Amino acid sequence: MRLTFIGATHEVTGSCYYLEACGKKILIDCGMEQGPNIYENQAIPVNPGDIDMVFLTHAHIDHSGKLPLLYKNGFRGQIIATPGTADLCNIMLLDSANIQMFEAEWKNRKALRAGRPQVEPLYDVNDAQGAISCFVRVDYDTEKIVAGGMKIRFKDAGHLLGSASIELFIKEGDIEKKVLFSGDIGNTHQPLIRDPEYPTDADYVIMESTYGDRSHDTPADYAVELAKVIQRTFDRGGNVVIPSFAVGRTQEMLYFIRRIKEEGMVKDHPNFEVWVDSPLAVEATNIFRRRMFTDFDEEAMELLNKGINPIGFTGLKTAVTSDDSKNINFDTKCKVILSASGMCDAGRIKHHLKHNLWRPECTVLFVGYQAVGTLGRSLVEGASQVKLFGEEIEVKAEICKLPGISGHADNNGLIKWISSLQNKPEMVFVTHGEDTVCDLFRSRLTEELGLNALAPFSGAIFDLADGKYVLEAEPVRIKKETKMGAASAKVSGIFARLLEAGQRLMSVIRKNEGGANKDLKKFTDEIEKLCDKWER
Asked: How far apart are CA 338 and CA 91, in angstroms?
């Protein structure tokens, strides 16, 4: 009954934990690291082909994004998730694969001209489709036996459609433990999504701390503030361009715009058009529509019971093809354009910025966090010129920002969540937060709530039966490489892939134990021929 911490330790992304219990090898989340990395993550300590199951908290890429790579390297087990998460992963993992392939193709065009070696995508569409085929859907609040001595139950985490905290009930011999993985804990009073369910008991808790050091501002009436921006922009004869994350934030914006239209908050511009220009956002919106009767909150359900679609209205249009997208900017009518990516660093939003940034009558409205180094951050901070597609564009449009409706609980919400436990857990492990935030929040749990709390680093192993560390890992900071060092890392990476392939082969060999002698002989002959070819 051992838990190994792999990712999102003293960092916010790359969530991944490895659990050995009841004779099974299990991952909880298998996320991709996004943004700057500070610490090296330890590798998953077993071959992907030997992993029996993955329990997935939600569909965001920093929790699910390496599932196709896991499949590529031999995983063929079950990925257990809520139906909402499975539906979103159907589109998000394919989208991620397309991005991986596009970026590899772009890098290879540059490498070919420069005489550098070609690179391969991290994974491709086939790998994503393979991972998708492994999903097993389990509804909220349903206990499912996943192994002899182990049950799983999903509780609504209130973070994203389908997001969950995971309760694991584990029994080995006379020892029984309940292990609770928080996932990403949602903020309260979000549009469409239910508030998080609060846990009642657990022996061990692994909880996020993303906003463990701050409180969210009390939001104004979002629809009213959004209507003011639309009103003054349309009165000038311009467009409102909204860079918006395709999954979650776009659907929230549609919810507010429906109310704006219903209540007539924008005067003298009846039936104005709203364009959703992002294939991923269009697909995600369709999933939200299909699941609205099962996953939406009480306020949205009241609308549904009146026959009102909470995210649909007259004048809503979608752009799927690139021609659809281009035609938006040839239409002179005032309109709202919702497009991805939310930080303006990729996607169709860059084309809309090219056509609207130089126009003083237009507005670019930011509705989410803008990371350092992104085009969105530059615009928010007052850039007077930006380069788009090799062309210098003067910024004359109004640039403004509405306070974001965060999908994460703030420090008070996190404290409320852990304080709902009616027992004192043996240990709380603080993860999924920036380096200093993990330590700060761990201290709060210890000093204010009297809880036993740790903030482990990647590679730490904790024995849940004995209640102590097997290995207390030390942090390993990522070193910035010279060009020569980067080249060496590329070579090492290729060799690492070779080792992974060898490990996968061993996994396949073990799985063929007991097969027909004729097949095993053929398999052996093929391996020996391969060894003869490469042996030096």
From this structure: 19
